[in-house]
Amino acid sequence: MSASLPGSRELPASRYDLNTYWGRVRQSAEISDPRMLFVSSSGLENAKRLVSAYKQGQIQSMTPELWHAKKVVDSTLHPDTGEPVFLPFRMSCFVLSNLVVTAGMLTPGLKTTGTLLWQIANQSLNVAINSANANKSTPLSLSSMAKSYCMAVSASCSVALGLNALVPRLKNITPNTRLILSRLVPFAAVSSASALNVFLMRGEEIRQGIDVYPVLSEEEKKKREITGEPVESLGKSKKAATLAVGETAISRVLNATPIMVLPPLILVRLEKMHWLKTRPRLVLPVNLGLILTTSLFALPLALGAFPQRETISADSLEPEFWGRGGQDGKVEFNRGM
């Protein structure tokens, strides 16, 4: 993100009010905008030059062109490393990356092999996305990543296969209710495994802590613009890491809920209509269209649930941080996405 580029002057965090939910939703919609995937490497370099020029005082005010440059940078670069996130795992590619996998999991009438393969594919994608967008101040080792991946795959497959076996055995329910429950099995598997996946893939953050920084006042920001002095970390906090990982896990479930619930329920209703009964080849494109439409709206709504740059009281962390906060006794940290 823009914070990783050279220059001591900070850009405005957003053109929207990030203290409100809808402000964060609009900001998340910019970061997850699929159009950012079409920005070329030269376009990214130009955006980085514009942002750096502002941070170094060569551009005095925010312009539409500079806001667009910030959008390109924020949707492409990792806030901790300043390096581009691998393209398939960026939030701007999240909807497209998940489209095929989600459609596969929601395919009606999947057998055991199909269920296993699609759950494995989904958890593999989740591992890659969670790893690419995690807080990088405490990286996860390859061995820990492999163990976490195996546990997440085992959990999702166990839930999916267990519920698939349970639903047909349910008594005293109508065939229509049984059909709906069978279509919702992927939701239960994905929701539980998505939350577990985040905790497993970012468990090292909870065990070691993540960097926290004092919140600067406007006077301190202006002073640092002149001196060029960087903001030093106050240390690593395990409580901040637990909050960051927990909020990210909740946002993953919030994102999965409408995507895994609405399309299958709508499709059940549409499959009873004459026009779709007589055109079975349209089931797949209709399903893809429902998933894509739901995903485009659900992702920013879920990402906006919590701020990406979290601000909390230093006194709510470990004792070594008490009284060391910045403005109003607050500290901040990168939650990850």
Characterize the structure shown.
By secondary structure, the protein is mainly alpha-helical. The protein folds into two domains: 1-84, no CATH class; 94-208 and 232-302, no CATH class. It is 59% helix and 5% strand. The chain contains twelve helices and four strands.
Tell me the β content.
5-15%
Structural category: mainly alpha
Strand order, largest beta sheet: 2-1-4-3
Characterize the overall form.
Answer: globular
Domains (count): 2
Helical amount: 55-70%
Count the helices. How many? 12
Mean pLDDT across all residues, rounded? 84
Q: For the record, give the distance between the C-alpha atoms at the N and C termini, rounded to a whole number.
A: 13 Å
Total strands: the figure is: 4
Series of secondary-structure elements, N-terminal to C-terminal: HHHHHHHHEHEHHHEE
Largest sheet: 4 strands, antiparallel
| C-alpha Rg (nearest Å) | 22 Å
Low-pLDDT stretches: none
List the keywords.
single chain; 337 residues; mainly alpha; 2 domains; 4-stranded antiparallel sheet; 5% strand; globular
